[in-house]
Amino acid sequence: MSKLNLNKIIEYLLYLFVFLFPLQTCYITRELFINNAKWEYGTICFYLSDLILILLFGLFILTKIRIFKYRIPKVPNITKISILLIAWSLLSIIWSLDKQLALYSVIKITSAVALFFVVLNIKFNWKKLLLVFILSATLQSGFGLWQFFNQDIPANKYLGISAHNPLELGVSVIQTEERRWLRSYGGQAHPNILGGYLVIALFFAINLYLKVNKKEEQNKKDLYTRLFLLVSLIILFSGLLTTFSRSAWLVFGMGFIFFIIFNFRKNIQALSKILFLFLIITSFFIFNFKEIFLPRFTINNRLEIQSIEERIDYTTQAKNLIKDNQIKGFGVGNYTIANYNKLKKDMPAWYFQPVHNTYLLILTELGIIGLILFLSFIIMLLRKRNLKNNIFFIATCSLLIIMFFDHWLWSSHFGLLLLFLILGLFIKISQKINTVVK
Q: Where are the beta strands (DSSP E) in 57-161?
């Protein structure tokens, strides 16, 4: 097989991975229960997207064998930091409470880092990659809209989706005086995950729409692309609203304002149209579902008060755990089992959740050393920023802000892959490189 054909296969495997990695289709190898309910954070499974990533990384290594054979490549600082992070996570298995779970978490982190370096080192068509990302997110958003209007999520083992009924405890809902309203999950484990994913897809769709719209001479392909992006913007933004994820709403609002400031003069007409479209969609949902949106902006609703109290409790729990083991932590992926051992064990399974702050979560699991390694990795990347390509900077910052309000970008398989995919794209376009960043 020629090197050219192999590189082409790798490129299209990346597109396939970007399209499929939001799916939760997986093979469960371990499933545990707490008080007769499934313990989500103790489940070990391997996803369909993992197979594609293994093949992608294997072929990528194959293309580099000749380089490694004739010379020892210089190891950039970013590579050293990522290796140290993986090594420290691996070492944490020794003192972890659940060694199987810790090993599984190390595999997830290693996969995410591998994806990061594959993105940095291979050539691909940016437009194709972003269109695939947007298409996959649009399908997820459309599915989420169907769930919201249907107010039920049936289980589907082929898509890796659990059943969610708004009448059941532990399901993410909005409480009104009349009923409990189910939030949009899409194919994800929680509406907040779908919300964060849709935010990134919206930024990419807006950016591509402006670029296509800017062309003076447009062929049929450009017109079809514009139509696709316009439809995607409608579905993505509608889906974002029905996740009722306040953290996702916040970072999208901040990012969109930032993007307008940097691009308003060059794209005043197109941005005005997009803003008008978003206002129409928002007006439609608020007019028809006013009683659902109000509780997300007030704290006099029972479930909203409970949500805030739980987040405060989770933070307190994390601080108590950190005091017990500040330096090395309790082992990667072992937050919930450590918390379970410390708290009342008669609580329902859904109560034992990671702290809703990724940085505190990493500190609890990997200690001060692990957090320093992770932050060093992020800081090193942000130093490479290039605001001329501000949409990727906005996307990266959006995820980093979400990490202050939630844990899924570290605790979930999809979240880790999404984080390191966006970090890889951000650095690649900022440096305009095809080799590992130095």
A: none
